[in-house]
Amino acid sequence: MPTRLPAEDKISLTRKVMRVLADWQLEPMDQCALLGLPASLAGQQFRQLRLGGSLPDDPDIWTRVALLLRLDNAIHQIFPFSALSANLWVTSPNPRCSNQTPLAVMLAGGLDGIRRIERSADNLDPLTMARSNLL
């Protein structure tokens, strides 16, 4: 549980998830929504999170962090030789998402949407994607 983590670990995980969301080139409002944070944090307070602050001790937020980090890991395993492709995957229309972007599914579905996309990406491998014309 994140509340039991030392402060430096919380800060490290916060920086890591913020870096992932920035790599995906998401708008601050979308980043807040994915993390389950109020839209009011998209300004100065949100920048402070990227620079060394820690996300609040909220189980929902830390569940989202874990899922988003696992999603990023799964995507980078699908595209091991192209960080650009991996980062674009979240914002590119996908047949597995009814030609919506995985981002749109996550934003519309909240925590359940994030879980759905994370599970979907975790179950993909490059060979499966090549056979289904998803690469």
Please summarize the sheet with the most strands: none
Number of domains: 1
Number of strands: 0
Low-confidence stretches: 127-135
Short description:
The chain is mainly alpha-helical and 135 residues long. It has helices spanning 7-23, 28-35, 44-50, 59-78, 83-89, 102-122, 126-131.
Observed structural traits:
7 helices; 135 residues; single chain; mainly alpha; globular
Report on this structure:
- The protein is mainly α.
- The protein has one domain (2-131).
- 64% of the residues lie in helices and 0% in strands.
- It has seven helices and no strands.
- α1 crosses α4 (59-78) and α4 (59-78) crosses α6.
- The longest helix is centred in the C-terminal third of the chain and has 21 residues, at 102-122.
- The protein is globular and about 40 Å long.
- The N and C termini lie far apart (36 Å).
Give the SSE layout.
Blueprint lengths: L6 H17 L4 H8 L8 H7 L8 H20 L4 H7 L12 H21 L3 H6 L4
